Structures are given as C-alpha cells and as structure tokens.
C-alpha cells in the first residue's frame, strides 16, 4: 500500500533527522561553551567525545525503548479488542456506528456497515484498532532499526563540529572553524531535510541554523559567566 | 471525545519523558566521562551546564520546529484534499470505497457510504485526512507548549546529576554521589513514566536505569582511554 510505504520511509527519515540535528547541535554548542571557559582543545575533545558517546547511547536506546513500548502497546490493545469483539459484540458494533455517525452517515447505513464488518473478525478488529484507537501496526524490528539509525546519525553529526579541535590546539581558533563548518552543515542538512519532508527548503534550513547558533551562543555565554572571565 | 483527550495528555507526557530522560542521562554521562579524565569539579560543572543549556535549547526548539512542521503539513494536505474533492470528486469517492473495500464491505455498501459521505464536504475531507492519510489535526499552540515542556524537563533532569559537583571539589568523589542520586532518580522516573503509559513499572524502570548506567560507563571508559590514564 502506498500509504504504508510513505509512513515507513518517513519514519527512517525522522530518525535520521532526530539523531543528526541533535548530534550537530549539542556537541557543537558544548564545544563552543567550553571554548569560552578553557584554552586547551584536548579537554574539549574529551568532553565532546564523552558527550557523543553518552548522547548516541541515550538517544539510540531511548529510540529502541520507545519503539518497543509502541509495539507492546499495540499488542496489548489488539488482544483487548479481540476479547471485546467476542465478549460484547453489540457494544463494539455500537462503536463502529459511532465512528460513522461522526462522518454524517444515516443510521440505516451505519447499521448495514456495522453488520457487514462484523462478518470478518480480523478486519473488524483491524478497523477498531486503526479508526477507533488510532493505532497503526508497528513494523517488525522497527525498534532496533530506529535505535541504530538515531545513534549512528548522532555520532556522524557530532564528529563534524568536533573535528577542528583535533587539528588546532588553541580552542579559541578551533571554535571559529567549528562554527563555520557546523553552520554550513546545519544549513545543508536542514535544506535536504526540508526537501524530503516537503517543506520550504531555504527558510527551514535557516531555522535549523538559527537553533544551532542560538544553542552555541547561549552555552558560550553561560560558560564564560560561570568562569567569571 | 475520549480518544482525543487520551492523545493530548499522552503528548505532554511524551514531551516530559523525552526531555527528562535525556536530561537525566546525557549530562550525567558527560559528567561521569569527564570525571574519568579530570580531577576538578569546576571544569565538570562548566561542561555540564554548557551541555544543559545547549541540550535544552536544541531539544526545546527542535520540539517546536517538529510541532510547527506537523501543523504546516496538516494545513497543506487539508488544502489539497479540499481542492481534490472539488476538482475530481469521483476519484476521491473511489478512494473512500477503497478504504472500505479493505475492511471487506460489499461493493454496493461501499457505493452507498461514499455517496452519503460526499453530501457533507467538511466531513468527507475530515474522513480522507484521518483515514486515508492518517493525519490527526494538531492541537493549536502544540508546538510552543511542546518546546517549553521538553526544554524545561531537560533542565530539571540535567541539574540532578550535576548537583554533587557543586558541593564536592574532587570530581572522583562527586561522581559516586552523582551515580547514586541519578540512578535512583532514573528508577523513580522510569517507574512513574511506566505507570502513566500503562507498562510494567519495575521492569521498565530497570531498563531506564540500565540505559543511564550504560551511557555513563561508556562515556567514562572512552574519556579515560582518550586521556591515556
């Protein structure tokens, strides 16, 4: 089905967007913040890599658990719907009618639809799951795939703003290069993200850049303030 | 409607969960990682607060943009459906029939439903939005509320693991207290989160604790490795 396909590809894209936008932004802002407080790139590299490791695990496993929870929730609701259809079929039929009453169908037509749908239990339950409860069947292995996609995107995103600090010992100088590289990457990333999701690419890309710049500037200012420099 | 209400409250809870679980985990793991590399709590406080500032802005504004994108997407699809219903009504009726064919209704009944639904354009379009495209109307001000909830939850979550470093100058000692406090908070947080979302509280709480511990241990190990200690 076209609809299903659309949903799946946008799930993966959403995972990449989640991972990479945070990966580009948070380690970038952390490194910028520390550049406002310490002069040595080595401490910034240590903090930055610790952050990337922590962030990718937290986000990746977080994504895994969220996917698992969704799958568990679907399974338990599915079981309950099968139970209810067997136990109180008239009540479940009334719920089907209610859905169609909401779309302005006549009582007579509501009855016909409910009766006909009740002939096939699987399709009836599927209808209740999707249209009464608003639940889509989660894809198998969605949780694992989601965890890997988010975690990996976070690592890729995080290495970019950190890279200048590997080559430039003085953190203030490295910060300039980090800002330039990261803001360009955020723009390119925001541009393609918007292309794929069908939004206005340039204005959306600028929004992504502004978030990154704001986060970095705030972290820089706060770190300077703490250190009283 | 009950269904709508359920969705809304779980959106806010999801935002709190997103913000607080990352807030508890990432600054905790970053501080733990840096404790493996530097002895002074002051640099860890600077890095930790820079991370909280950066993370809360990135996540909060990220949540805001996600909400905005969802609302824009809904508005543009809604416009397109109204256009199509006016321009190619027969094709749109065929799509309604297709939905019901999927649930095993007879052709005759499919026709009746499509004809009756077509009498009220608003309800027809609403049906197409929800059941063909799977789109729910986003709540007004959802984006702003989501941004504030996620950002604030991240700050609250992040201050907890950082607090021992404010009182204990030697970072190795502060780390013990940070681990104890944070793992307890992760358990309590995981427990209530699972209660609310209807999952098994204890096993789910343990999963949340394991993610935090894993992220912190990995960050600690990597930071030690980089510094060759």
From TrEMBL, chains A, B:
CDD domains: CCC1. The chain crosses the membrane at residues 16-37, 43-66, 147-168, 174-192, 204-226. GO terms for biological process: intracellular manganese ion homeostasis. The keyword Transmembrane helix applies. One of its GO terms (cellular component) is endomembrane system. It is a multi-pass membrane protein. Its main location: membrane. Keywords: Membrane, Transmembrane, Transmembrane helix. GO terms for molecular function: manganese ion transmembrane transporter activity. It is found in: Endomembrane system. It comes from the Bacteria. InterPro entries: Ccc1_fam. The keyword Cell cycle does not apply. PANTHER family: FE(2+)/MN(2+) TRANSPORTER PCL1. This is Iron transporter.
């Amino acid at each position: 089905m076209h609809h299903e396909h659309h949903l799946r590809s946008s799930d993966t894209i959403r995972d990449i967007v989640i991972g990479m936008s945070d990966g580009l932004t948070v380690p970038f802002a952390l490194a910028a913040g520390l550049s406002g407080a310490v002069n040595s790139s080595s401490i910034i590299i240590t903090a930055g890599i610790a952050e990337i490791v922590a962030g990718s695990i937290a986000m990746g496993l977080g994504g895994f658990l969220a996917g698992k929870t969704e799958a568990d929730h679907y399974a338990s609701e599915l079981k309950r719907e099968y139970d209810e259809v067997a136990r109180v079929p008239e009540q479940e039929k009334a719920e089907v009618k209610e859905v169609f009453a909401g779309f302005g169908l006549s009582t007579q037509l509501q009855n016909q639809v409910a009766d006909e749908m009740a002939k096939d239990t699987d399709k009836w339950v599927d209808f209740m799951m999707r249209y009464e409860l608003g639940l889509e069947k989660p894809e198998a292995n969605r949780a694992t795939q989601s965890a890997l996609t988010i975690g990996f995107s976070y690592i890729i995103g995080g290495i970019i703003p950190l890279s200048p600090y590997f080559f430039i010992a003085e953190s203030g100088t490295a910060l300039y290069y980090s800002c330039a590289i990261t803001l360009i990457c955020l723009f390119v990333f925001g541009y393609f993200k918007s292309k794929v999701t069908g939004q206005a690419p340039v204005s959306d890309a600028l929004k992504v850049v502004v978030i990154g710049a704001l986060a970095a500037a705030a972290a820089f200012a706060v770190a300077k303030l703490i250190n009283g420099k």
